[in-house]
Amino acid sequence: MIRVYPAIEKQTRTLFSSLLDLIFPLRCVSCRTLGARICDPCMGSIHWIDADHCPRCGTPQPGSQNHNCVDPERILFIRSAAVFSGAMRKALHALKYRSDRPLADQLVGLAHRHWILPSWDFDALLPVPLGRRREQARGYNQSRLLAEALSRLTGIPVNAHVLTRARETPSQVGLSFQDRKQNMAGAFRASGLHGRNLLLVDDVCTTGATLQSCAETLRQAGSISVGAVTLARAIVFERPRN
Prior knowledge:
Blueprint: H1 6-23, H2 40-45, E1 78-83, H3 86-97, H4 103-111, E2 124-127, H5 132-138, H6 142-154, E3 164-165, H7 177-184, E4 188-189, E5 197-205, H8 209-220, E6 225-233
Parallel strand pairs: 1-6, 2-5, 5-6
Antiparallel strand pairs: 3-4
Helix pairs in contact: 4-6
């Protein structure tokens, strides 16, 4: 067996990466200029959610709009790093639909500075599972990539198997909060989580229905507490039903 020393292996990876950059130079996922996956002007245009947000669901500027807050009996909090618009929206689309997997580490590295959590004392990071057909078609689960990137930053282990899909669900696009809640009812399963403090990881939170359904399943499986972080938060304006 040929022994490869770590220093040589690291130099080889760096050289290979440099060659790839020469052949396929990086372009900004938002404006397509050369030089970086997210260029400085586009980085500066991202709307980070640092303050003035709902302490439970993380909705920006909660006093200025009606929003469906989370049930604290299910999930303690949801924290989103940025608004789902502009460069952040395009970056997430590149991660999900264009197989730009290296973006996961860069996006989590940026988001980690803006996630304002009560603490980082969790037993495991749990990516929100995709339906089997969607994951097979895509080839990966973007939420798992994000959870693994966050694990490398925090040292909290990833458990991608304890929470699974119990059934396939139709797309949530265009659905109201109540319809999303009904769509996700009974969509997940889990077991053997007594005494665990868990953090869900996902790419985008729209109404929180998916994350609350996951959290409810985890609490029923015995977890002490469940929180969630997402890279982005979609701003939804929904009229109250009479």
